[in-house]
Design a protein that fits this description.
Radius of gyration: 29 Å
Distance between the termini: 22 Å
Helix content: 10-25%
Shape: elongated
Largest sheet: 4 strands, antiparallel
Oligomer: single chain
Number of domains: 2
Order of helices and strands: HEEEEEEEEEEEEEEEEEEEH
């Protein structure tokens, strides 16, 4: 019976983790470039149950041999193995703001590969993002809405000297006759990147391999790839599963209480 407690409790904890991920997705449904989190669940190792017994062998001195009769397998519960962002590209929306940029994937060599803008976080380290909701700071540098510098292909902050600049489809920022290539990074497996706050990812990303193509659309933004309707449906399903495990846990608790009270009366 105690195994049933643990199994039901693990189901409740798993659905709670699922609810947290879905709630975060819905909260970021309007965040540009946001990648929805997907939880993967795994079962704990199953145990093969046997009935322990003995068999009396009719010999002169008598002989009892232990026996094991298979009963079946017992599942010991489920847990959230990991939370993985879905790197499918979101839809593109026209904003008409010159500092907004949408990075649209073209030809990608690997199915799990993806392209990112390169930015510099508060610690001066390179990070990657799909959120092209940029602006220009007081010093004329192109920055994210959190104030992180947008980097060029040499890893330097991009200087625009104001809001008047153009970005070509192949990622060249043009201002006052000077051209600066934006730092577009590529990773062959986006699932290996670690998701951080403010829409940033950390990990191994680098130069574009041969044959990779993309388009920068100035005045556009890539939207979140969260499907709000689907997420709400999944939340309802997860909540029902949580309630089911809760009822199972309550039933085990009532059975345990009844067993204890009856054993006490027998004493």
């Amino acid at each position: 019976m105690l195994r049933g407690f643990y199994t039901a409790a693990s189901g409740m904890m798993t659905q709670q983790r699922q609810q947290e991920a879905l709630s975060n997705n819905i909260a970021n449904a309007n965040t540009p470039g946001y990648k929805a989190d997907q939880t993967t669940m795994r079962a704990f190792p199953e145990m093969l149950m046997h009935q322990m017994g003995s068999s009396n062998i009719p010999t002169q001195n008598g002989l009892n041999l232990p026996t094991q009769n298979p009963i079946g397998s017992l599942n010991t519960g489920v847990y959230v193995h990991e939370t993985v962002p879905n790197h499918v590209q979101g839809s593109v929306r026209d904003t008409g703001i010159s500092t907004d940029m949408a990075l649209v994937n073209g030809t990608i060599p690997d199915e799990t590969g993806s392209l990112f803008f390169t930015v510099q976080n508060a610690e001066g380290e390179a990070r990657y993002t799909r959120n092209g909701n940029f602006t220009v700071d007081g010093d004329g540098f192109l920055v994210t809405t959190q104030g992180y510098y947008v980097l060029d292909d040499a890893g330097n902050p991009v200087q625009t000297n104001g809001m008047e600049f153009d970005v070509t489809p192949d990622g060249l920022l043009q201002v006052e006759g000077e051209t600066t290539p934006l730092g577009i990074a590529y990773t062959e497996n986006a699932n290996e990147l670690a998701k951080e706050g403010d829409g940033l990812f950390s990990g191994d990303a680098g130069a574009l391999p041969e044959g990779t193509t993309f388009t920068i659309q100035q005045g556009f933004l890539e939207q979140s790839n969260v499907d709000s309707l689907q997420s709400m449906t999944q939340m309802m399903e997860s909540y029902r599963m949580f309630e089911t495990n809760q009822r199972v846990l309550k039933a085990y608790d009532e059975s345990m209480g009844k067993a204890v009270s009856e054993i006490g009366r027998l004493g």
